[in-house]
Amino acid sequence: MTPDAPAKPRRSLFADLTPLRRSPAFARLWIGSSIAGIGTMMTSVTVGLEVYEITRSTFMVSLVGVISLVPMILAGLYGGMLADAFDRRTVALVSAVLAWVSTAMIAAHAWLGLDSVALLYVLVTVNAVAGTVIGASRAAIVPRLVGIELLPAASALNSISAGFSVTVGPAVGGVLVAAFGFAPTYTVDVVLFTAAFLGVITLPRMAPEHDALRPGLSSLIEGAKFLRHSRNITMTFVLDIIAMTFGQPRVLFPAIGALVVGGGSITVGALTAAYAIGALLSGIFSGPLGHVRRQGEAVGWAITVYGGAIAAFGVVVACAHLLGGRPSETFSTGILPALVLCALFLAVAGGADNVSSVFRGTILQAAAPDGMRGRLQGIFIVVVTGGPRVGDLYAGLVVAAGFAYPPVIGGVLIIALVALLLRLVPSFRRYDALHPDAN
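== MFS transporter ==
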């Protein structure tokens, strides 16, 4: 190397913290979202456990997410239009208030001992709608706070936040439910969610572009036209829908803890946390992701690994079912071999899903113009939150139809469909992070 040659940037194995250092506003938003996310995931697993305790039906558990799907789709579309037409900080703040109130009402339902599954469905739907709008607004805000060049690092940091929340939340939720019951567990979420307000209130003003369309049919049509001609962005949505529809086994966890492996709520918390631990670890060691240029191809490989891990998880569950005796809902060391293997494959799936999420989010934010980000993020949030709910329905229907192992079937379908789509859309395989292109 000559003395005048520039030194190559040092590549670290660990996550790049530059966005937190350069943007205090992003740092506050990240911290607040991380704390609030713990409580959100506690409530998510707790609602499933409560519905299962009331009904003893996996299908009824699956409806917790399915019923809120259509309202979430509408909220994502309209919330995205709001984020493009109004101050994104204000949109996020109003939505956060609605989410907090609905969480408080879920806690009140438990404290009053109402045991109303219908009321839980309604409250969870309201909470999901508010969360969708918050997510769309917040994600559209991030590029303005950190800049396009730091989007992969910011996405990886957000994945760490999500992974930490999903790791800690379900595990703590399962233990709290077992020790204290549903009502105190929901109440902890009410307290933790207040941290979300800190991150949003302290944001700078996020005014829309001067020529932004007001929410309505014209705005929706404009977004649809842009997306129709944006094959690379569309592929990020389609691939995630495939992965989450056929590879989301969470609705099976209560039955696995009660009827297959054993261990009850502690097993449910452990399985849910294992998935998140994989996501968290892949976020912590995400330094190399910022140097990947073929991000579309990386998405394809990540989802393929995800499908393989889900299929392997299904094989372990099937073996435990066929070889096991009469499992107890009380945790015992006898369930450890099956539980460890299930957790291992779920951790691999969580890590692969997180890598896919980092690149899909980066492609969307980098390839879309700022005035379109709110609407596209609304669709993105609908996909990443609605996809698992469709997956819940898939798993519930497969079990109801008499097929005991939906993860095995789903994992194989994921691998096959991803290979087919990458072959049909070569532009996505060639997507270059240095030259973002929606088409």
